[in-house]
User: What shape does this take?
Amino acid sequence: MSEDGKLKPAERMKIQRQGMPSREAAVRSRCFEEVNLGLPEQIAVLEANRCLECKDRQCVTGCPVQIDIPKFVALVAAGDFAGAADILLHDNSLPGISGRVCPQEKQCEVLCIRGKKGQPVAIGYLERFVADWAREHRHGQVAAAVAPTGMKVAVVGSGPAGLTAAGELAKKGHSVTVFEAFHKPGGVLVYGIPEFRLPKEIVRQEVDSLRARGVQIECNVVIGRTYTIDELMKEEGFHAVFIANGAGLPVFMGIPGENLKGVYSANEFLTRVNLMKAYEPESDTPVLRAKKAAVIGGGNTAMDGVRTTRRLGADPATLVYRRSRAEMPARMEEVIHAEEEGIIFRMLTNPVAILGDDKGWVSALRCQKMQLGEPDKSGRARPVPIPGSEFEIPCDVVIEAIGTRANPLLTQTTPDLKVNEKGYLIVDADNMTSKAGVFAGGDIVRGAATVILAMGDGKRTAAAMDRYLRKLSAVGTP
Assistant: This one.
């Protein structure tokens, strides 16, 4: 140990990465309670002491919201959780959320110098620890008031991009109103990600913290129908608009049998369960409880879908993916959890038809075995069909989780917003669209992506909007 009481690098290197306590698989596969349980204080301190405090802060480079990772981790290592919370909350408007669902292993942790010899520092676990500590110990604390600028901003969508931008703009003193189409704020955080991965109480508390900063949130407002973008700016008096309504239009494979009863898009299935609480006996929104479920896809949404069917009683619950496990875009932690929960993985398998019974209900998924060929545009090996390899997977529910695209409602009502061939908004370096004062970020620009990338868009765009609004104010815009 050095003279300042800190561990020497050689001592830090001897500390093994600490695991995340989790609910027992046999128990959690039958309930919707959160899987990961969080780090105890002493374990968090021990894990934080693995950080080498290197001068080359590569971990920050890998963070889409640019959290000062070394500083907050060092404060955790010193047992100063309040100081760590100050840093984290300054840099991140939704730390309790990103600490749970961000793919840190592909962002900050993959660049951690500590990981070059052994495993990287568990930055995500520490982020969650600090966020949870702050929520428990700072409940009811309100951020210091900021002098109002007199500028009004409308945010379309209350998902991760919209909420992040709203928080950042409120910090700058702008009046912010978020418009949400659903009856609860949170976007994909409440309708897409299951309770067992992201408890909705966490989302509610993060949203409440934004409200405490002065952010107004109006639900059941569909921009493109309730208001158009032009009406927000010309009639409602908003000086700028941030479009963050995501890409929620489901994509189907286009195979025979998709019109059978028992076929869901992942969007519909997860929305019914997560937002409408369809798994509760008294719920007004029904959902089919499969005896045997097949979920198509290899991303986080597919993983959420198949693990949800398992919790609703499906046995077996099968994931069908046309590539191998190495090419799966899903988080490795989620894959491991799914395996522990008894999910069956059918890799190198591509559905070619959904079969039904004489009453129009799903009875099986007809598939074809695949082999990997040359890389495609994504850089992953292209799956190639194996002739004569077709077989059937018995099931009574099929869920397609193969992606989403932009809903055209908003853009069709604002024709001067330029979109690309896929319907996503075209933006400049500041994330401003072709319409002056209208910015956009998240999935509506980049296509379906991760929560943390959407948050990064929200933070960067808020900074650009702040510059834009201050220029307007300086020239006396009413």
Observations:
- The chain has three domains: 9-137, 152-248+405-474, 252-402.
- Residues 451-474 form the longest helix (24 residues).
- The longest strand covers residues 362-375.
